[in-house]
Amino acid sequence: FSFASNDEVSALLSIKESLVDPLNSLHDWKLDADHCNWTGIKCNADGMVENLDLSNKNLSVNLTTLNILDVSQNFFIGEFPLGFGKALKLASLNVSSNEFNGSIPVDIGNATSLEMLDLRGSFFEGSIPKSFGNLNKLKFLGLSGNNLTGKIPGELGKLSSLEYMILGYNEFDGEIPSEFGNLTSLKYLDLAVSNLGGEIPNELGNLKLLDTLFLYNNNFEGRIPSQIGNITSLQFLDFSDNILSGKIPDEMSLLKSLKLLNFMGNRLSGFVPSGIGNLPQLEVLELWNNSLSGPLPSNLGENSPLQWLDVSSNSLSGEIPVTLCSKGNLTKLILFNNAFSGPIPSSLSTCSSLVR
């Protein structure tokens, strides 16, 4: 196979560390020698590794003692090798940003010492193995940017140590497993652009440590669960570009750490909860292209460093709040295609931060 990377020497030495070399065939793989002259290495005219040929060297992989393997940001191609389930001491496996294809090996679920598993940015196909539910020490799971299909297995809800789950940009079927409500250590959940549907499970409200929840650009329908208001650590909440309907829950006003609230491109109706004007950290509020009505909170922008506000293409009415630029941070203000009345606030004429 061929590959190139920003740090080829480190990648090659990482491979060497994972190999058993009884004939000392790779004796010249050292930092003080030009890696283009190493055994089995062929570089192109630019000094980038073009081929790696380790055939007939009596090499094997020492998986029993392997602790960390990082070959990210290369151009490894082909199917991912079997056997990593035997790496019982493996704590970190990072093969992100390569060109692997085929299925994710089921036996990875046997590497129960794994704390970090990053398979993002390749061409993996098929379903997420249910065996991943055995990785009870796992803190980071990255599978985004592949060609994964099938339903997300509920077995992932067993990963009680998991802090980061990044599964977006795939082609899954079905819904978010309700078992995800058991992931009470989770801080970051990204399921964006994943072809998921159904209703957003109420159980996500159990994730009290979550600071980021990205579900945008899917096919979620039904109401926004009021239980989301229980996740008081949330800073970034994006449900945009779905088919969500009903009202924005009043419980959104409980999210005092919220910096970004994006519900644009849905079918939401009713009033914007007045309590949103009291969110002290709110920087971005995107609600455009819904069917919202009534006034904006009269104190919106008074209590937070508001930077972006887009509520265009709704049925909002009443006066434009005079407080939108109270903190002097407002850069984007888009209000068109509504039914606002009254004067344009004079405070906007002195809002020097405003760009649009």
UniProtKB/TrEMBL annotation:
**Name assigned to this protein:** Leucine-rich repeat receptor-like protein kinase PXL2-like
**Gene Ontology cellular component list:** membrane
InterPro entries (UniProt xref): Leu-rich_rpt, LRR_dom_sf, LRR_N_plant-typ, LRR_R13L4/SHOC2-like, RLP29
Q: Which SUPFAM superfamilies match?
A: L domain-like
UniProt-annotated location(s): Membrane
Q: Where is the Leucine-rich repeat-containing N-terminal plant-type domain?
A: 5-44
Instruction: Name the PANTHER family for this protein.
Output: LEUCINE-RICH REPEAT (LRR) FAMILY PROTEIN, LEUCINE-RICH REPEAT-CONTAINING N-TERMINAL PLANT-TYPE DOMAIN-CONTAINING PROTEIN
Bilayer-crossing residues are none
Q: Where is each Disease resistance R13L4/SHOC-2-like LRR domain found?
A: 179-263
Q: What keywords are assigned to this protein?
A: Kinase, Leucine-rich repeat, Membrane, Receptor, Repeat, Signal, Transferase, Transmembrane, Transmembrane helix
Q: Which GO terms describe its molecular function?
A: kinase activity
Q: How does it sit in the membrane?
A: Single-pass membrane protein
